[in-house]
Amino acid sequence: MAETEHITVATTSAGVGGTDEPGHSVDLPVVELLTGRGFVTGKSGSGKSNTASVIAEKLLDNGFGLLIVDIDGEYYGLKEEYEILHVGGDEECDIQVTVEHAEKIASLALEQNVPIILDISSFLDQEEAEDLLTEVARHLFAKAKKQKQPFLMLVEECHEWIPEQGSVNEVGQMLIKIGKRGRKHGLGMVGISQRPADVKKDYITQCDWLVWHRLTWNNDTKVVGRIIDSEYADAVEDLDDGEAFLMTDWAETIRRVQFHRKQTFDAGATPGLDDFERPELKSVSDDLVGELETISEEKEQTQGRIKELREELDKKNSRIAELERELQDARDMTRMAEQFTEALLDHVEGYNPGRTQKEKERTRQAQLRGALDDGDEADDESSVAESTDDRSAGSDGPDGEPSDGSEPASTADEPVDAADESDGRSDGPADTPEDGSVPPNTDEPAPDGTSGGGFGDAFGSFADGGPAISGGEPAGDTDETAAGEGATDDAGDEPDGLDLDFEPATSGNADGGAEVAFADATADGDESGDADDQRGSPADEGPHSQPRFVVDLRTELEEMDEKTRRMLQYYVEQGADTPLNAHFSAGGSGDRTSAYAHNRGLRLAGFVEHVGRGRYAPRLKALVRERAPGEPSATAVVDAVTELRSTIGSA
To answer: How far apart are CA 491 and CA 611, in angstroms?
Structure first.
């Protein structure tokens, strides 16, 4: 590095505001330039960029380092005489760089004293250019603290980065930090702008040296008047090209000077009618470019690997979705086979809607055992008789009745009471009507196995709602009612919606209240028929308490991702549909991978199941029965499902 302490950049000129005789040389101290804060301003064509280039040429002549932030692509002409590295975003530069090159650029400039032009104008993406400039400035500041070497950062059109009005972005904050604190580390900065009124005044007032070229806009001349004096505010409008007022902290007077003309190609000159002739520019060392190219190659390899991994991930997600569909199809086939087998058994033994699921399973097992006995009729008849005896004794069925609906056999030792013959239960009150109905406001069991006061308490409007089962109908007539009015199958194949084990022939009201009441009322053939089971049900823990499994399910719903819970709400309200439609309704974009990811959580938790053709449906009833301890009553199932639906809609 040269030992020059001053550089000559101009001569004094005559005119208003001039305090020295014209023709004297104007020198600037190198250390003050490299480490201080400067500001060069003037309207377009007044010579401000020429002044900046003259200062840059003089520093380069003496081997001093600098980095030029070129926003208009007008400084590459320096390469006509100097080996300076030109980096940017297009092929006109020595090498194309990105934010990944920022640290290396700062290292070359500050640690290896390589002069650099950072051409921001060559980037099509403004955000990419700002990110690069921010990182270069950050690394320069960090390295200057350790390097302690005088270095100048020249920033064109600084009003775009540190504006007077509006917020200062990350680039501007970093430049202000260099302007305020860089000097103590040897890092200086020169801001150049054609609109001083638009530059943040905190920066201008802290500058060590200022150059005022011709300004004509009223707002700009007012800035001159406030910082220098009102007489200069008038005189600045009459300055010639290249002429300026020079104001420095190391001189006592303000001088009117004429800056020298730059020696290198003027790439910022306004094009004329003559043919444009680009000069032959000096190339930089292959070693310097090679170091940056290595970073570019590593970035391309990284991006290529990321692309490959994303494609592989998409393929795996698609394969997972395909396997899930195949698995659900297999489950559907298994369920259809079970339903077909059950239908055949019902056809063989006679249809009886009053049977419970437990009784059906026991009968099926008995028939399978008989089929495997190689036609042993004696054993088969014994098994059937034993099964019949068990049902007659009240061990099968919720009401102690035979599964085929016949009257229970009486013994000689135990006379049968008239009330027992009518409803298959233990002793009834003496005033029970002969037709088996239950008087109002009593807690006596009805002939169909339900509590006489249960409907009035839980579903007060049921009697006025839909097809309520009359208390005066004997239990044996349920075959005709179920067959004629659409009784449901106990296997659990019900329509979408409340997800119950039964479906009424008609609905009593629009919000489904009668549907719930009807489901509760028609539970005479299910778990609610057994009084002992009802007393043991976890739904009867108290008037205001909830069973533990319901609390756990509610907690799962409340902790569920909001979009996943909205998809479940969509299934509950709309019925079976595809995950894409549910995801879109829940506020998602309809992206297939995201939709199936949310849907997978619902399926694994047991809240939905695949119902064929890529559609999923809610299974709240089945989930309640799986989680409930023991055999929950129909009323407990209804209450639990209703509570879960409420949680889904309000969580």
So the answer is: 15
